């Protein structure tokens, strides 16, 4: 493990680490923000999953989340969005391959092997984080776009492992939109049952994890709203199964980090209520 | 004038414009944040001057300043750091030429002509901003590193034009450090009197503009602290002339935007007190 960055920030430290992932069989970079409270004892951890094309840098430099994490005493962990490196398969488009792991375990070639972001996020990364005595095993998860899909699906499939979940502009029904269909066909093949296991709307329809309320913010000027995101499908599924959902259409906001920065404070307060009982 | 970006942010709008600068004889990009209050009537304007290598993007994407501007009802204007374009002279290093305008009017070739950032910031940019009815002519100025030098020198030379000034990690004595000596020799030639007119410590020693208190934050882990920044020279000059100075050495902080993000809220509150009487 190597510490690449170590920067004072809101009384705590914004670090970036490189560690070897056994699951992904490559080196991975991870941003970790330690709030000032981490010096006194273990803090709960909020995992942030980024969207297409992102590395760990987008969230840690643009979201302004450290201020709120410092207020609430929450560690922020922002991993990269896929396995990386010259030995890792890739594709031409921005929406498949490196930078586009979609938080699942690929079964198809050439992706199977390295592309196991589901196992990395659910198991290996928390184990690595919680080896630090500053981090407790109390976990929340949040993300944006492809990472919103990742946060919602992972939490719904593992309600025993996450106390809270929220998302910005998530791909709620990847099986029904171009980004998801392209990625799922490549990573998972034609087996639609495998697709359903990574589709938020399909998971909600199963009626699982209803103890986990969902907070979703979506800009109504988002350029991907109708083609890729389709939050009304999530609303319908939650209504049909009485899954608690707070879905907010934010007027004027787009798909950018300016949107995330504007509301990440409310998301962190939401998570703090579940993670710290605030 | 062309609007390149228009993004909802904290209830207001983060815009980026391209406009023709007559003073610099080139196209310039400018970030402008309009807080929600700008819809009701004219708001005071805080000008942000960035450091070496920066464009308008660094501040608007990384500082997290919009939140505080929205709280206080202040417009933020973040210009580029030099004239730009293929017809504009440049140099190999990051610390001279494009991205390194040093907020002065160059008298030497090949820089004279385009490199007139002093006139641009003091006169042309405010006139352009204040043509918008949302902006008042009540101005504050703030900046980082080379831009901290710009903010302090410009405010000290124009106390009738700026009600407030502050800086992060400013180059307070450019005549005495390598960054400033290289730039001043290139842009201003050997005339040391011309150098003094753009040197914060020299301006303070003249005892001018003592009605304008200075707020300066400096990280004590800043990698440029002893070689380029030397805040103790500012402290000595202010003590010698009874110039009001709040100089804070912030333990652990470096030269990055993580430092700026951590304290920009306090700077904007400081400016709001002068600009809005808060």
From TrEMBL, chains A, B:
Active site: 145 (charge relay system), 222 (charge relay system), 255 (charge relay system)
Gene3D superfamilies: alpha/beta hydrolase
Domain of life (superkingdom): Bacteria
Keyword Hydrolase in annotation: yes
Keyword Hydrolase: yes
EC supergroup of this enzyme: hydrolase
GO biological process, one term: formaldehyde catabolic process
Pfam families in the cross-refs: Esterase
Keywords: Hydrolase, Serine esterase
Cleaved signal peptide residues: none
GO cellular component terms given for this protein: cytosol
Catalysed reaction, written as an equation: S-formylglutathione + H2O = formate + glutathione + H(+)
Cross-referenced NCBIfam families: fghA_ester_D
Known function: Serine hydrolase involved in the detoxification of formaldehyde.
UniProt similarity note: Belongs to the esterase D family.
Identification of the protein by name: S-formylglutathione hydrolase
């Amino acid at each position: 493990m190597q510490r690449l960055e170590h920067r004072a920030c809101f009384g705590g430290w914004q670090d970036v680490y490189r560690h070897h992932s056994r699951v992904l069989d490559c080196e991975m970079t991870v941003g970790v923000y330690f709030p000032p409270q981490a010096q006194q004892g273990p803090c709960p951890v909020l995992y942030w999953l980024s969207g297409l094309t992102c590395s760990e840098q987008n969230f840690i430099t643009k979201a302004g989340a450290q201020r709120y994490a410092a207020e609430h005493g929450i560690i922020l962990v922002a991993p990269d969005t896929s396995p990386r490196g010259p030995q890792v398969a890739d594709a031409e488009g921005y929406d498949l391959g490196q930078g586009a792991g979609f938080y699942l375990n690929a079964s198809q070639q050439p992706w199977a092997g390295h592309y196991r972001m589901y196992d990395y996020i659910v198991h290996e990364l928390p184990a690595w984080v919680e080896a630090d005595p500053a981090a407790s095993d109390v976990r929340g998860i949040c993300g944006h776009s492809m990472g919103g899909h990742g946060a919602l699906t992972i939490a719904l499939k593992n309600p025993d492992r996450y106390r809270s979940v929220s998302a910005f502009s998530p791909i709620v029904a990847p099986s029904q939109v171009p980004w998801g269909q392209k990625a799922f066909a490549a990573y998972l093949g034609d087996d639609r049952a495998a697709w359903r296991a990574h589709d938020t709307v399909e998971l909600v329809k199963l009626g699982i994890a209803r103890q986990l309320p969902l907070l979703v913010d979506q800009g109504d000027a988002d350029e991907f709203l109708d083609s890729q995101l389709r939050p009304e499908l999530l609303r319908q599924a939650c209504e049909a199964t009485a899954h608690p959902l707070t879905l907010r259409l934010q007027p004027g906001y787009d798909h950018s980090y300016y949107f995330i920065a504007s509301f990440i404070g409310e998301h962190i307060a939401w998570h703090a209520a579940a993670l710290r009982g605030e």
